[in-house]
């Protein structure tokens, strides 16, 4: 029975993105659960193994195959069923003969930022005691790679998803119509920035952040959008997967 579950942020795949606390947690864990996502994403497992090697952990590694989402279901149902299946596979991987002690999971980016690992963990019965060890987030890795601050001077920042951007466009706040400063977009496989009014809009985009395959693009959306789309497609084809994010900032109000 799992009594303690540790969720350890692994940044965007570089061992350097795991904190000293995270490395120590990997050494102190009894079991580490490691997801396998198919042949096309073997590098994702290799990155996790590289982090475990850097931590010099003696924990037992238990692998599990990641379930696929059912595209026939509505989005909310699809995600709910998927999360149920992931929780079940964690428990199947542990089985009845797992060593006693903390179980650890490396979580891409950060366990608290657009990640469902905490929601999945709360499906477990009986519920384990949760410990979250933050790592470098994709947002931090992006702004550091471009050497830019996350916010403008005293300006607001909003973090959203590609799905939300496609559905609602730039998220204006009706209580503050001037709230147009900075928007960070994650989980966007469709490059949804192309649907926005490009006037005055600047983008800082990055993929495979912190790795040797890192690629960066920045500039006015009107000038670099096509290049980002092409670069993203090429990078995904080379690796078989891609994790990217971007920051949008309006340099001046759009003209009408």
UniProtKB/TrEMBL annotation:
UniProt GO molecular function: precorrin-6A synthase (deacetylating) activity
Domain Tetrapyrrole methylase span(s) in chain numbering: 5-224
Organism name: Salipiger aestuarii
Keyword 4Fe-4S: no
Cited Gene3D superfamilies: Cobalt-precorrin-4 Transmethylase, Domain 1, Methyltransferase, Cobalt-precorrin-4 Transmethylase, Domain 2
Name this protein carries in UniProt: Precorrin-6A synthase [deacetylating]
Signal peptide location: none
Catalytic activity from the UniProt record: precorrin-5 + S-adenosyl-L-methionine + H2O = precorrin-6A + acetate + S-adenosyl-L-homocysteine + 2 H(+)
UniProt superkingdom: Bacteria
Family annotation (Pfam families): TP_methylase (PF00590)
NCBIfam families assigned to the protein according to its UniProt record, in alphabetical order: CobF
Pathway: Cofactor biosynthesis; adenosylcobalamin biosynthesis
GO annotation, biological process: cobalamin biosynthetic process; methylation
Record keywords, A-Z: Cobalamin biosynthesis, Methyltransferase, S-adenosyl-L-methionine, Transferase
E.C. no: 2.1.1.152
């Amino acid at each position: 029975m799992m009594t303690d579950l540790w969720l350890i942020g692994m940044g965007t795949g570089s061992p350097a993105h795991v904190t000293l606390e995270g490395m120590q947690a990997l050494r102190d864990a009894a079991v580490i659960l490691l997801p396998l996502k198919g042949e096309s994403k073997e590098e994702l497992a290799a990155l996790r193994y590289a982090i475990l090697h850097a931590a010099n952990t003696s924990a037992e590694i238990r692998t599990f195959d990641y379930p696929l989402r059912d595209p026939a279901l509505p989005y909310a149902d699809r995600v709910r069923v998927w999360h149920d299946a992931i929780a079940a596979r964690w428990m199947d991987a542990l089985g009845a003969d797992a060593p006693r002690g903390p179980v650890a999971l490396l979580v891409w980016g950060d366990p608290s930022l657009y990640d469902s690992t905490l929601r999945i963990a709360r499906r477990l019965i009986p519920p384990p005691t949760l410990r979250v060890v933050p790592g470098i987030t994709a947002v931090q890795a992006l702004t550091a790679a471009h050497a830019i601050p996350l916010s403008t001077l005293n300006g607001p920042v909003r973090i959203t998803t590609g799905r939300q951007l496609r559905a609602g466009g730039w998220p204006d706040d009706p209580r503050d119509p001037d709230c147009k400063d900075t928007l960070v977009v994650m989980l966007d496989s469709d490059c949804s920035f192309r649907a926005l009014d490009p006037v005055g809009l600047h983008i800082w985009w990055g993929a495979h952040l912190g790795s040797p395959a890192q690629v960066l693009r920045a500039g006015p959306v009107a000038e670099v959008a096509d290049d980002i789309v092409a670069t993203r497609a090429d990078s995904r084809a080379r690796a078989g997967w891609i994790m990217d994010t971007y920051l949008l900032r309006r340099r001046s109000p759009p003209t009408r």
